[in-house]
Design goal:
The complex is a heterodimer of chains A (745) and B (68).
Chain A lengths: L8 H20 L9 E5 L4 E3 L5 E6 L9 E6 L4 E7 L6 E5 L7 E10 L6 E10 L9 E3 L4 H32 L11 H34 L3 H6 L2 H8 L1 H29 L4 H21 L10 H33 L4 H37 L3 H6 L1 H27 L8 H7 L3 H22 L14 E7 L2 E8 L6 E9 L2 E2 L4 E8 L4 E2 L3 E2 L1 E4 L2 E6 L6 E10 L6 E9 L13 H17 L1 H10 L4 H36 L13 H14 L6 H9 L5 H10 L13 H13 L6
Parallel strand pairs in A: 2-8
Antiparallel strand pairs in A: 1-3, 3-6, 4-5, 4-7, 5-6, 7-8, 8-9, 10-11, 11-12, 12-13, 12-18, 14-15, 14-16, 14-19, 17-18, 19-20
Chain B lengths: L15 H25 L28
């Protein structure tokens, strides 16, 4: 028999000091920030520009709440010169159009950003200079401490994880260990059921209160208002119906109402139909698991650049297992004193061992999942050792790990004490643990501290990865008496904006029709002509996603003024893959290894269940052969299907747009078009022939190399052009012929 | 065309609503199944070897104790 030794006095003092230290650590941790961050800025912070940009653009790592995000640009006197918001096409892009001809000086862009995934609001200022840098003007990020947010997040997590722990430990440990048919209502003695039920009702009340606080705090953050204004003006309700945060909040509230209803039904059935109490409590564990999922959907993982959905599910698995472990400890700490009250001596020890043995197995399975999923989640954000030591996120993570290590140590002491025959050399630890109750209380307190630390971690900004300065592509050219300047931003793959500035004799050229086309000669591919929208002061704006792969590209700009022939400005660019805005990042070997470890830990946790299923399987050779055959054939046909589809897509691409045999080397600028027009008039007598019009009609679907062949060898009724033309001259003619596409009726 | 998203502010793409609601439905179905299964399950708890307060330590199993 294990002697129930009282803990030594020194041990008590160590415990008290540890708890006080934890409390100080929790209070001293700087909380709150936002999960998203700027991944690309044009202009870069503190950039010194030769001339004023047409707009400011800030790409974020995740989507923004359109109605609650804005950007204001001021000059160095504080005068607002422009304002803007979230781009219509891209909710991760904040943009503001600037007036033309901004004078030299400093400009400050004030961003107020609400992130969609979690509703966090930040204000940030970015600076750029036109002409020369101005001393004393700096940007900043305001990370306001929001004690209310930490409070509701910690209270929500603690209450909901305790609820999950109560229902799950009831189903998985208490009833199997202690259940008896002599207690029809819940199979446990009424004193235990009453204690658990009271704890569940208190946790439900705390969870509802925390939700009320959450939506009010969110309204305050979104509208930058105080509590009274938020309640009086109904800002909390706008946050509820108008944001993704509100969606998740509503889902969480509905699920909590469901859980409360199930618990209420169990109370109703207590006397009328006591056999239903247990089903209601077991079902509630599933409802609470779903409630926990609403936190994961609004966690750091939702804004991850690496597999956001995987991150959400891993975070969910982490939170669930923490709930089973830490919440379960809370449930045990609450129920053990009343459950064991009638017992003493050996009976008390046996009763305690019965439930601790079952909970120990559950906690051990959870621990593996907690560690593996925690490592995966941390590696989502911690990419360098410096992230651990020099960021608030690293500090909060370290605090959580420290507390979790204490929790594991106490759990290990319990594990050792439960199995004295296996751990004889650790008998001193077993003697310290004594009758379990004091150390169980310590473990529960540590678990609560871990949950609070998790709340802090979820409200702490993630480390922002290093990004290289990538200025936009910009060039300027003269076409007759026009100056045409083109800025492509961000200048990478994907959606780009094209800012075309026209001046004539030094004055902005307005009321022009401006068209723009992207082309990649190496593929003999041209995008559609995009009409640029006039923004005033000679600025014309277009956007397209035509640039979709790296390499040499052309941007062709046609300027058409009433009563004048079209003017062509052509620009050649080298588009680099690294210039794209970072919208996702590839996994590292560590990420993959951590994910595999998380999956292995989940598999290990479910191993006993799998074993039970395995024992029920019909494993006769014929059945196994058929099953394996079906699995193999399904996998085989799936792989074949994927390969066939990929081949078909590749063949379609190759058929529609095969690699050209000849690549047009002549940039179709104004000079090339002028040469081509003169050569065409001299060497290609096609205009009067019937097939000329047919060729013009077919230009949109005719490749440059086909036009080159028509010029060299003739096409249908059109004779070959003068055979003395050089290859470059033939390409000039091709470029000129291409302009007839725009002149089609 | 029916185009009323249930969750209007998906930040993870167009499959937000489908995935969220599917998971919700799956869990609610499992919850219902757990309720039905537990309701129909006879409490296999009073094994003959299960010790109670009246049992001595020698005849006990380490993870079963019928609480009175």
């Amino acid at each position: 028999m294990m002697p129930p030794l009282p803990p030594p006095t020194a041990f008590v003092w160590i415990k008290r000091a540890a708890l006080a230290g934890l409390l100080l650590l929790l209070i001293g941790t700087a909380p709150v920030g936002a999960h998203g961050f700027i991944v690309r800025a044009i202009p870069e912070n503190r950039a010194v520009l030769e001339r004023a940009p047409a707009r400011v653009q800030y790409w974020f790592s995740e989507g923004l709440e359109r109605a609650f995000s804005s950007v204001t640009v001021r000059d160095q006197t504080g005068t607002v010169i422009a304002s803007g918001g979230v781009d219509d096409q891209n909710n991760a892009l904040m943009t503001a159009r600037l007036p033309a001809n901004l004078p030299d000086g400093a400009y400050v862009a004030e961003l107020r950003v609400a992130f969609a995934s979690d509703g966090h609001v930040i204000t940030e200022t970015r600076v750029f200079f036109v002409g020369a840098a101005v001393e004393g003007v700096t940007g900043s990020t305001t990370v306001r401490a929001e004690p209310l947010e930490v409070l509701w997040r910690a209270a929500s997590l603690a209450a909901i994880l305790l609820l999950l722990g109560i229902y799950a430990v009831y189903a998985l440990a208490l009833v199997p260990a202690w259940g008896s048919p002599q207690h029809p209502a819940g199979l446990l003695p009424p004193r235990v059921m009453r204690r658990l039920s009271a704890a569940a009702l208190a946790a439900l009340g705390a969870a509802f209160a925390a939700q009320a606080l959450a939506i009010v705090q969110q309204g305050m953050a979104l509208f930058n208002a105080d509590v009274g204004t938020t309640l009086a003006q109904g800002y909390w309700n706008i946050a509820r119906v108008g944001t993704r945060f509100g969606d998740l909040w509503t889902a969480r509230l509905l699920l909590l109402i469901l859980a409360a209803a199930l618990h209420g039904l169990s109370l109703y059935a207590w006397r009328a139909q006591p056999v239903l109490v247990r089903p209601f409590w077991v079902a509630n564990a599933w409802a609470l698991a779903l409630v926990v999922g609403t936190f994961s959907a609004g966690s750091h993982a939702a804004g991850s650049l690496l597999w956001p959905w995987v991150g959400i599910f891993v975070d969910w698995a982490h939170a669930l297992t923490v709930g089973l472990w830490a919440g379960g400890l809370g449930a045990l700490a609450l129920s053990l004193p009343v459950a064991l009250a009638p017992y003493a001596g050996e009976a008390r020890r046996l009763a305690l061992l019965a439930v601790l043995n079952r909970f120990s197995r559950l906690a051990a399975a959870c621990l593996g999942v907690v560690i593996a999923t925690g490592v995966y989640s941390a590696l989502n954000w911690i990419t360098t050792p410096a992230d651990l030591t020099s960021t608030a996120f690293g500090g909060a993570l370290g605090l959580k790990l420290l507390l979790a290590a204490g929790l594991v140590a106490v759990g290990a002491a319990h594990h050792i004490t439960l199995r004295p025959e296996r751990y004889r050399r650790w008998a001193a630890v077993a003697r310290r643990v004594g009758n379990f109750l004091p150390t169980l209380r310590l473990e529960a307190v540590l678990a609560a501290a871990v949950v609070v630390a998790a709340g802090l971690l979820s409200a702490t900004p993630v480390p922002v990865p290093e990004t290289t300065d990538q200025p936009p592509l910009q060039a300027q050219t003269a076409v007759e008496d026009y100056q045409v300047a083109l800025v492509i931003s961000p200048g990478g793959l994907g959606v780009n904006t094209f800012d075309i500035t026209l001046t004539r004799d030094g004055q902005p050229a307005s009321n022009r029709e401006v068209r723009l086309r992207a082309a990649q000669p190496a593929r003999d591919w041209r995008g559609p002509w995009e009409a640029a929208e006039e923004a005033g002061d000679g600025l014309y704006i277009a956007a397209s996603a035509d640039i979709d792969r790296p390499g040499a590209w052309w941007a062709l700009v046609d300027v058409i003024a009433p009563g004048e022939p079209p003017r062509r400005a052509a620009f050649a660019w080298d588009i680099r893959a690294e210039a794209a805005v970072l919208q996702s990042r590839p996994p590292t070997l560590l990420n993959v290894a951590a994910l595999l470890a998380a999956l292995a830990a989940v598999g290990w946790a479910f191993y006993p269940l799998a074993q039970r299923v395995y024992r029920r399987l019909d494993l006769r050779p014929a059945v196994v052969t058929v099953a394996l055959g079906v699995i193999f054939m399904t996998a085989l046909f799936s792989i074949i299907g994927v390969v066939v589809v990929q081949n078909a897509q590749a063949q379609y691409e190759a058929t529609v747009n095969p690699p050209p045999q000849r690549i047009n080397p002549m940039l179709p600028d104004a000079a090339s078009l002028a040469r081509g027009a003169a050569l065409y008039a001299r060497a290609c007598p096609w205009d009067s022939l019937a097939d000329h019009q047919v060729l013009i009609e077919r230009l949109p679907r005719t490749r440059d190399e086909e036009l080159f062949a028509a010029v060299s060898d003739g096409w249908r009724g059109l004779p070959a052009c003068d055979g003395r033309l050089s290859d470059d001259e033939r390409w000039d003619v091709v470029n000129y012929l291409r302009t007839k596409e725009l002149a089609r009726p | 065309m029916w185009n009323v998203p249930v969750l209007a502010h998906g930040a993870l793409g167009i499959w937000d609503e489908v995935i969220f609601i599917s998971i919700g439905v799956i869990f609610l179905v499992v919850m219902g199944a757990a309720w039905l299964k537990t309701r129909a399950l006879p409490p296999e708890l009073d094994e003959p070897t299960a010790p109670s307060a009246a049992h001595d330590a020698a005849s006990s199993t380490p993870d079963r104790f019928r609480l009175d």
